[in-house]
Amino acid sequence: MNREKMKIPAENGQSKIEYALLISLVAIAAIVALTFLAPQIKALFNTASSFSPAAEEGSDPPTTDQILADFQSRILAYYQKYGRWPRTWSPYNFTDIGLNPADWSQPVNGLYFSPHGSEVGIANRLGDNLQVYVNDLDGKTLKLYDGWSIWCPVDKPTCYYHTVADGNEVDISTIKVVEN
User: Fold this and answer.
1) Which of 20, 22, 75, 137 has a CA-to-CA distance to 166 between 20 and 30 Å?
2) Quick check: 43 and 68 in contact, CB under 8 A?
3) How many domains does the chain have?
4) What confidence score (pLDDT) does residue 46 get?
């Protein structure tokens, strides 16, 4: 028998429900993705195009949080583009993410920043006259010994004292550099 002769109604109601469910699934996926990427998106909007220490003479140096956010967003962008983390050795640890290593050879606010694969290291240098202190999540002040680093992974919302391990979490906003 022919459909026209039988006058079978079209299934418009069911297709509209399926369409609405599909749109809902896409919206939920977008919300989950935005939640995961919120720190990186925020960093992109809150940072200038480059926080190179040589970017603008005479202007206030960027804060540690700003520099860290810029490094992390660059590392994440590299990973998203190439499907792997940037290299860990110099000079490629800087050039892979679009930075000039010479611009980062001197401290910014008394700190040296070093991208290292999926992490950013923050340290002072052996033999300088600066001491770095940071608070752990319980408020206890920790001294960053010469040659040690604070590690800030791109895929975690916190930074770590000396090694990335449970119990070593620190509040990066409390970092202080004191001259001897």
Assistant:
1) 75
2) no
3) 2
4) 41
User: Is there a single domain that holds both residue 77 and residue 136?
Assistant: yes
Q: Is 73 helix (H, G, I), strand (E, B) or coil?
A: helix
Q: What is the mean pLDDT of residues 10-24?
A: 71
Supply the range of the domain harboring residue 141: 64-179
Which pLDDT band, with edges at 50, 70 and 90, does 44 fall under?
A: very low
In a domain, 155, yes or no: yes
Q: Let me know: does 51 contact 67? Beta carbons within 8 Å.
A: yes
Rounded-to-integer distance, Cα 162 and Cα 142, Å: 10
Residue 89 and residue 168 in one domain: yes
Q: 105-140: per-residue pLDDT in tens?
A: 999 989 999 999 999 999 988 888 889 999 999 999
User: Are residues 159 and 169 in contact, defined by beta-carbon separation less than 8 angstroms?
Assistant: yes
Rg (CA), the chain: 24
Q: Alpha-carbon distance 50 to 73, whole Å?
A: 11
8 domain-assigned: no
Closest to 145 measured CA to CA, from 157, 169, 128, 159: 128
6 in a domain, yes or no?
no
Residues 175 and 140 in one domain: yes
